[in-house]
Design a protein that fits this description.
The chain has a single domain, classed as NAD(P)-binding Rossmann-like Domain (Rossmann fold), CATH 3.40.50.720. The protein is built from ten helices and twelve strands. The strands form four sheets. The chain has a six-stranded parallel beta sheet, with helices on both faces. Strands 6-9 form a two-stranded parallel ribbon. Strand 4, helix 5 and strand 5 form a beta-alpha-beta unit. The longest helix is centred in the N-terminal third of the chain and has 22 residues. The chain starts with 5 loop residues before the first strand and ends with a helix.
Length: about 290
Amino acid sequence: MTDKLLTILVTGADGQLGKQLKLLAPKYPYCQFLFASKKELDVADSHSIKNFFSGHSIDYCINCAAYTAVDNAEKDKAKAFLMNADAVATLAVVCEKRKAQLIHISTDYVFDGTSKKAYSENDVTCPINVYGQSKLKGEEMAIQNSASAIIIRTSWLYSTFENNFLHTMLRLMKEKDRINVVDDQWGCPTYAGDLALAIMRIVKSGKSKEHTGIFNYTNSGATTWYQFALAIKELSNSNCIVNPINSANYPTIAKRPAFSVLDCSKILDAYQSISVRNWKDGLRSCLASL
């Protein structure tokens, strides 16, 4: 690290990852953070992006802004691609021009879920829903338009903030005596606080221009939504009965990959200050923060 004060723009600052980065910010006194919600910076508006960058000297842009409503994306493809692909293209172009490094957040849903082993960054992508298609296009736009871009694929993100699986389960377990949860979709629940810390360790490493491209980052340990829900029940001391069901019994508008576990060895090799902990440990930390 240099002694230079780093200016870090966080787009989508009102989302759960943006909020987790905001909680971390005081631990990085050598960084000046610009937390921009849609009100301050609408990434869907190319003029808004260009105007924002012209008014600030930015070293890193952590793009947490995204269209994440997986089912709604099937009905609103244009908006999903506007947010998840077109906006990323503009950010990448502007970052390249301004010599800022783009750190863009992507998803396990770029895969079709037919693998029998954890997906590496080099495995063939084949998204099976519009959300995954739009996020994959965003990855391509980032790499195509910015030589120094870093893309971090993560999965099943949750946090202390609302609108995620954890909060939905906690609410339902208070409201209902029993609930049904899908037990045939496998992935890696990831605490957004851990992802935020990993991102900041990339920045702090001083090696982010050496190690670019696509990386996977999740908490470790493959599990199902049902097993995730059981852990939430146990750690929150709920008496709600949780029943496992098949995806066929819980139809959704968008298809989900049956298996989207990610192999995180590449990011651990490149950035040795980054660690990956088991998803249950991440869940314990998140619930303790609540």
